[in-house]
Design brief:
With 90 residues, the chain is mainly alpha-helical. The chain contains three helices and no strands.
Length: 90
């Protein structure tokens, strides 16, 4: 006849294993949720339109602003010419 010698140890092993599997499952689920959140954030960022840079209207606006500064007397004609050349060169 087979007699179990340590039933409490067996129960502890089974319970401990079940606990470890449960914790592992929870950790995996949290990792998946974090990864999904990162993916959604990257998709959101890539869907955002890029700001317009260096277009003709941007250059015209800057030149108009410089001309306004000359008209107000903030810039001299030489400073205006230098700033205009710098804008046109870039």
């Amino acid at each position: 006849m087979f007699r179990r010698r340590r039933p409490i140890l067996g129960a502890a092993m089974i319970g401990g294993t079940a606990y470890a599997v449960g914790k592992s499952s929870v950790r995996n689920q949290q990792r998946e949720e974090e990864e999904q959140a990162r993916i959604e954030a990257l998709e959101y960022q890539s869907a955002q339109p890029l700001p317009a840079t260096g277009g003709p209207t941007d250059l015209a606006a800057k030149l108009t602003e410089l001309k306004g500064l000359v008209d107000q007397g903030v810039l001299t004609d030489d400073e205006f010419t230098a700033a205009k050349q710098k804008l046109l060169a870039s």
